[in-house]
Amino acid sequence: MAQNVSMEDFEALLNESFEIDTPAEGSVVKGKVIAIEAGQAIIDVGYKMEGRVDLKEFANPGEAPTVAVGDEVEVFLDRVENARGEAVISRDKARREEAWDRLEKAYASEERVEGAIFGRVKGGFTVDLGGAVAFLPGSQVDVRPVRDAGPLMGLKQPFQILKMDRRRGNIVVSRRAILEESRAEQRAEVIGNLTEGQAVEGVVKNITEYGAFVDLGGVDGLLHVTDMAWRRVNHPSEILSIGETINVQVIKINKETHRISLGMKQLQDDPWNAVEAKYPLESVHTGRVTNITDYGAFVELEPGVEGLVHVSEMSWTKKNVHPGKIVSTSQEVEVMVLEIDTAKRRVSLGLKQTMRNPWELFAETHPEGTVVEGEVKNITEFGLFVGLPGDIDGMVHLSDLSWEERGEDAIQNYRKGDMVKAVVTEVDVDKERISLSIKALDDSFSGAVEGVKRGSIITVTVTAIEDGGVEVEYEGAKSFIRRSDLSRDRAEQRPERFQVGDHVDVRVTNVDQKTRRLGLSIKAREIAEEKEAVEQYGSSDSGASLGDILGAALKSGDE
């Protein structure tokens, strides 16, 4: 019985020893390289088991195999024995298992891992992390887009694990995170040595529309386009180029965001310090048009000093016109200084002030009564606008078009573009108005009535008979005698008693040069003759009749 128990115990101990000493399939075991032949390493993994591993599994990507006889290595045991009685082992799988254990610990503690970029794939690169292959997205290679990754291939360098999934065999790493961390440390150190107002030297790294980024030795500062020069700079490339070394001043440092604002013009003399002395009010200077807007044009008096010519100060005559139709960019113009505001760094300039006021000049050269000729520029319901010297217009009112026709009828005789002559009747410089008269060109009335004055007796010719009176003519000047003025006797105040062509003596009651009309009256002539006769041949107290007095006057006249 004792013998049977001892045999059972021995068998149990033997099985236990097998379980302890025999490696389990699917585990990593240690082995020793006992030979290298036919591109393979023969490895003794113990317990009288040997296996073969291709030499390439002992090489890092892009490198030669590093293995020799006698080396102790770790391999992955797939199967204890294959058809040839050899163990099926793998160095790659062993390295991968080892790497995953190591990488999981690093990922959990957010530690950096070392690896080498060895291949390019869609969207990025592959990285060997000492046995495990990770994906490096293109956006995580550097802080800025990398055009050529050649210099980075095969180079051992640190990476940060962003994500890993052992079950799927997925690892994502970043090189950019390492660079940003290093850069942040470097920026903090550089910024700590900078002070606002300090002059430093830097290299232009990048140029944008709004400015340039300058490398100050590990940290970038922004040089805004408005701080590059005292003058207007349309684009930074006008005065800077990439790679150029420049001197700048630190304007502002934001300790929280690590942003640095730089300036170049601050290291130069401010031209505004001498503006008031150099550009006194009402002084005239030559400048260059640098920019044109809807409300005016900017003119550079000198580098760094610009003034605005408001659209209202650009031309005496061109109203409501875009400044671009009066001046052009880069054009040199003469301007007058109208106002200076040093605090706001503004200069108000005038362009028209450097030229004579065309209305003043016209008034000097064309006094009232002067005959001018011009083109009809516009026709409105109240008159004609005629172009005059100096690019100004004069207006002929409806009432100044014709003596004979109504203004509404007379204006129909004119067309835009017609050349007309007119007389200057008034020039108002302040209101910029010039009044003209076309009918004033006809001076026949003045010639006809020369010497005729109120109270004169003249002979007129009847030209028309109307119900309200008769139309008469004197030396080409027409007039109208109303019915009530045809006779002192009411019974004789009949227009039909006259015939066209009759010559009638009348008394002038009014001479109106403005309307070219004579006030005429037969009744006034008769009353004047009666009065004269009474004064000469009798009086109302003598008892003589009017017939007697007139008879005597007529008889005296015949003698």
Automatic annotation (TrEMBL):
Q: Which SUPFAM superfamilies match?
A: Nucleic acid-binding proteins (SSF50249)
Gene Ontology cellular-component annotations: cytosolic small ribosomal subunit
List the CDD domains.
S1_RPS1_repeat_ec1_hs1, S1_RPS1_repeat_ec2_hs2, S1_RPS1_repeat_ec3
Superkingdom field: Bacteria
Offer one example of a GO biological process linked to this entry.
translation
Entry keyword set: Repeat, Ribonucleoprotein, Ribosomal protein, RNA-binding
Task: Give the InterPro entries listed for this entry.
Answer: NA-bd_OB-fold, Ribos_protein_bS1-like, Ribosomal_bS1, Ribosomal_protein_S1-like, S1_domain
- All copies of the S1 motif domain together span 26-92, 110-176, 197-265, 282-352, 369-439, 455-523
Q: Which GO terms describe its molecular function?
A: mRNA binding; structural constituent of ribosome
Keyword RNA-binding listed? The answer is yes
Question: Is Ribosomal protein given among the entry's keywords?
Answer: yes
Q: What does this protein do?
A: Binds mRNA; thus facilitating recognition of the initiation point. It is needed to translate mRNA with a short Shine-Dalgarno (SD) purine-rich sequence.
Tell me the protein family, please. Belongs to the bacterial ribosomal protein bS1 family.
Mind telling me which NCBIfam families this protein's record contains? PRK06299.1-2, PRK06299.1-5, rpsA
Q: What's the protein name? A: 30S ribosomal protein S1
